[in-house]
Design brief:
The chain has 2 domains: about 150 residues, Rossmann fold (3-Layer(aba) Sandwich), CATH 3.40.50; about 120 residues, 3-Layer(aba) Sandwich (Rossmann fold). About 45% of the residues lie in helices and about 20% in strands. The chain is elongated, with a radius of gyration of 22 Å. InterPro entries: Universal_stress_UspA, UspA. Belongs to the universal stress protein A family.
Length: about 280
């Protein structure tokens, strides 16, 4: 059975990631796998001994090795404590089908191994240095979004149950995929959905919105549509804030091969500015 995979690092976003995963699990009836990565093991301790006598150098190296071993144990203890807290949050939310894993390895290797079984991948907007650089996104976020083949749900700092969803729609392949995914997923059943296109008013733009609306209606989702002028990130960000949307769905990339190497600029701006979860589609 396909899983919800959530990566947590013990940052201030970790609780929100677990609460969001619990909400998704309740909506789509899927098991949750929570993973905390320790990074690569086995790195040799740095040579801090300098040019000193052999006896002293050997003693220092032994001491450094002991400290490195103790540090590794502390990091592992911290990782298990993070996962125990995550499991407790899931239990309080009533999610029974949960597994946790403390894993030694690299993020993208883990993603590649696990995402075939994933329906959606959850990660926080920022990591353990969240309070040091509020305008910066987490260093792992773009790596995950760029590499993932499955939808990525970027979790906000705080979670609240979702009742209103905004779909940022530009008519491109990833936006069309977002609408198609939304139409087929029980995640959005019964929610209020607004499909928004930002840009020039044209017959093509209006027709694309009607097509998206029709696709959703065929799946039993009654969505409103809106065509608004202006800059996409500014207009959409203000709309989310002013009208109280609790989730945004959008494509993650531009259309060209070069643009596919980075997250689209509008997407990046939306992730930075929005205080709600964003579901990103490729």
């Amino acid at each position: 059975m396909s899983k919800i995979i959530a990566f947590i690092d013990g940052s201030i976003y970790s609780a929100s990631i677990c609460e969001t995963a619990a909400w998704v699990a309740g909506r789509i009836d899927a098991p949750v796998e929570i993973i905390h990565l320790l990074g690569r093991a086995g790195a040799a301790p740095s040579d801090l001994s300098g040019q000193i006598e052999l006896g002293a150098r050997s003693a220092l190296m032994a001491e450094l090795a002991t400290l490195d071993e103790q540090r590794a144990k502390l990091v592992a203890h911290r990782g298990r404590a993070i996962l125990d807290d995550a499991a407790e949050i899931m239990a309080r939310a009533g999610v029974a089908n949960v597994t946790t894993e403390l894993r030694q390895g690299e993020l993208l290797e883990t993603l590649a191994e696990r995402e075939d079984d994933a329906r959606v991948i959850l990660i926080g907007k920022r990591g353990v240095n969240a309070d040091m650089a509020m305008e910066h996104l987490g260093s792992n976020l773009e790596r995950i979004v760029r590499a993932a083949k499955k939808p990525v749900l970027v979790c906000a700092r705080a979670f609240k149950p979702v009742e209103k969803v905004l779909i940022a729609y530009d008519g491109g392949p990833s936006a069309m995929k977002a609408v198609d995914h939304l139409s087929r997923s029980p995640l959005f059943a019964g929610l209020k959905v607004l499909v928004v296109r930002v840009g020039a008013d044209s017959p093509m733009a209006r027709r694309s919105l009607k097509d998206a609306q029709a696709l959703l209606a065929a799946a039993g989702i009654e969505a409103e549509t809106r065509l608004l002028p202006g800059s996409p990130d500014a207009v959409l960000g203000k709309l989310v804030e002013d009208e109280g949307f609790e989730m945004v769905v959008m494509g993650a990339y531009g259309h060209s091969r070069i643009r596919n190497l980075i997250i689209g600029s509008t997407t990046t701006a939306m992730i930075r500015s929005c205080k709600v979860p964003l579901l990103l589609m490729r």
